[in-house]
Design a protein that fits this description.
With 277 residues, the protein is mainly alpha-helical. It has nine helices and two strands. It has one domain: Arp2/3 complex 21 kDa subunit ARPC3 (Orthogonal Bundle), CATH 1.10.1760. Strands 1-2 form a two-stranded antiparallel sheet. It starts with a strand and ends in a 17-residue tail after the last helix.
Amino acid sequence: MADRAGSVTAVRLRPKASVLLAVTTVVGVAGFCWPLLIHGTSATAFSHSSDAPWIFLVVLPLLLAVVLSELAEGSLDAKAIALLGILAACGAALRVPSPGVAGFEPVFFLLIPAGRVLGRGFGFVLGAVTIVVSALITGGVGPWLPFQMFGAAWIGFGAGCLPPARGKAELGLLAASAAAAGILYGSLLNLWFWPFGAGTATAFSFVPGAGLLHNLHSFFFFDLTTSLGFDIPRACTNALLVLVLGRPVLGALRRASRRAAFDVPVVHESPVESPAG
């Protein structure tokens, strides 16, 4: 089991899973950005209410394929799947008392240490599964769901890509990552909503066919003026949770990883026959 500057990576991405994650990410980027890249005549024509179910139907098999490929190649086993389920349930529980009021969303806190300890692939799947489970519990199923899944999945993935660090430096790095993730998550969800939800009569409205740079400029100011009141509290909440609770959570995850020994290969030995008496 690799010990990378104090962090135990329990689940390593294998080549097939890496390709599947790359394909899933491309689908997510296309789902967010396709209105910016095509021409049209009406912003309402770009409502994601019609394409979201198709994105959801594509994402779920891809996530399942990632898990199955890791199972087939030995990176995941029953213990890792059980831990995935436990962490997803804990993340969903964190979302129940925090329906996003004033940006208070501690559901993302657990994704940061989990992605850090258990690896970027595990963090990606955990983020998506956590959002699905929490949406089913809270009744938050809608056209926004696949986009929330991608946002949370990328948060878990990003935590697994952070550079090595130890002690207070690691906590500071994770807190900064949590703060940045809170801001970026809000911007991503705004990008999903903005093309059809901001109207057509404002200075920051999406203009079909106006060009990528023009619309990105408009989106930047739309995000700046409408979302920071939610994004900053989300960023501060998750950064504070990492600073306060990060050390015990990291320690618990690392102990669980070492005891479960996810990446230790299973060796089947032939029974030793006793010599004839």
